Amino acid sequence: MPRRLTPRDRCVVIGAGGLGHIGVQVLRAIAPAELIVVDRNPDAVELARSLGADHGVVADGGQVEAVLDLTGGHGAEVVIDFVGEGGSTAEGVRMLRRAGDYHVVGYGEDLVVPTIDVISSEIGFIGDLVGSYNDLCDLMALAARGAVTLHTAKYALDDFRSAVDDLAAGRIRGRAVLVP
């Protein structure tokens, strides 16, 4: 869980897909910060906006500059990266303000940051895998009151190839689930 976010803070969420769309809803329910969502897919950005994100930025090459513009050139207090690949880590670090926290959830590439940049900017890196039992209880409470809903596309087990193809092509908003 990110540090306590205040109404003066900004939080960037990179990736509004499977897990990211849940993260946006949780953040909206528990944090008063301004939420900025970045995703390559315009439909995922629109889904995030409909779920409570204050701003949506399509990752089209100008996403770092767009986030910096939205934050007055300072960057966000917290960046949560649900992608962790395809350049998102380098871009996410550039979206972070001085003394900010970068939460890595997604994985797939190396996080490469010169140590002098970490020290001189006083930024922190936090790896988040699944959360605690209490985090799960909190998520279930939010879901029970309708503050968090799962957007899913269901596929039969024998139609798994279509699920994989749809995920690869960016046609899934939310999560893809295989059912018997």
UniProtKB/TrEMBL annotation:
Which keywords are on file for this protein?
A: Metal-binding, Oxidoreductase, Zinc
Q: Which Pfam families match?
A: ADH_zinc_N (PF00107)
Task: Note the InterPro entries from the entry.
Answer: ADH-like_C, NAD(P)-bd_dom_sf
What's the superkingdom here? Bacteria
Q: Which residues form the Alcohol dehydrogenase-like C-terminal domain?
A: 18-144
- Name any cofactors this protein relies on: Zn(2+)
What family is this protein classified in?
Belongs to the zinc-containing alcohol dehydrogenase family.
Which protein, by its recorded name, is this?
Zinc-binding dehydrogenase
Q: Which organism is it from?
A: Actinomadura rugatobispora
